[in-house]
Design a protein that fits this description.
By secondary structure, the chain is mainly alpha-helical. The chain has ten helices and six strands; from the N terminus they run ααβααββααβααββαα. The strands form two sheets. Strands 1-3-2 form a three-stranded antiparallel beta sheet. Strands 4-6-5 form a three-stranded antiparallel beta sheet. β2 and β3 form a beta hairpin. The longest helix has 16 residues. The protein starts with a helix and ends in an 18-residue tail after the last helix.
């Protein structure tokens, strides 16, 4: 990965931890309202669409939202309300049970329709978006729910998995998913692992720039992110 692209991924996914502002300066990302919706909207605005060829809906990480709000309990309550109102969808990103992506529902719908246009599974996907998405804001779906409540046949569920709209959680259970999200997860893991497992020389954010350098390139390593503790 080029140095420029590495910096783009690190800063956007990591949203480097803001230090305490001097002289009462306000962090513009926090916004005056301090709402979870405002935080998600700003994170979505910063999402590097070009890095993924504009094929993905903008994704904010729950941990990023936490980094922009002073109270996690309040953040969780507001996100839950947005989820229940159908304004956002929450997806499990696969590499960690606590790694949740947050997507505005309309962005999700638009990108999924585009990704599946003209494909053999387009009909099943359209049915899912029209019936399941407005009625159920859950993170995952069960066999009985899909077949009895929403009337999906087993071959249709298989088509949804093939389309990347669902991913297998366990037998008879599926996570909501984002088609093409594998590339996002790849970059997320590439950036987050060195941030979540800092060396002894990089225990404090202020030490990162001085000590976390690549022995091969000498480039400054990614600083501690707002997520991951």
């Amino acid at each position: 990965m080029s140095r420029k692209r590495h910096r783009l991924v690190s800063e956007t996914f990591g949203l480097k931890r803001r230090r305490e502002r001097e002289d009462g300066e306000v962090d513009p990302l926090r916004g005056e309202s301090g709402s979870a919706r405002a935080a998600v909207a700003e994170l979505v605005r910063l999402f590097p669409r070009g890095l993924f060829e504009d094929a993905l809906p903008p994704i904010a990480l729950r941990s990023q939202v936490y980094s922009l709000l002073p109270d996690r309990t309040v953040a969780d309550r507001q996100l839950k309300e947005l989820q229940e109102q159908g304004e956002i969808r929450v997806v499990q990103l696969g590499f960690d049970l606590d790694a949740h992506g947050i997507i505005f529902t309309e962005d999700y719908r638009t990108k999924v329709l585009k990704a599946c246009d003209g494909r053999p599974y387009a009909g099943a996907v359209q049915k899912f978006l029209a019936s399941v998405l407005p009625a159920c804001g859950d993170l995952s779906f069960q066999q009985d729910q899909m077949t009895k409540t929403f009337g999906f046949k087993d071959p249709e569920i298989t088509q949804l998995v093939n389309a990347g709209v669902l991913t297998v959680r366990d037998a008879g259970s599926w996570w909501l998913a984002v088609p093409g999200a594998g590339k996002f997860i790849k970059y997320f893991v590439k950036v987050s692992l060195p941030l979540l497992e800092p060396s002894s020389a990089c225990q404090r954010p202020e030490d990162s720039a001085r000590h976390c350098t690549s022995p091969q390139s000498g480039e400054e390593g990614p600083r501690r992110a707002a997520y991951g503790g």
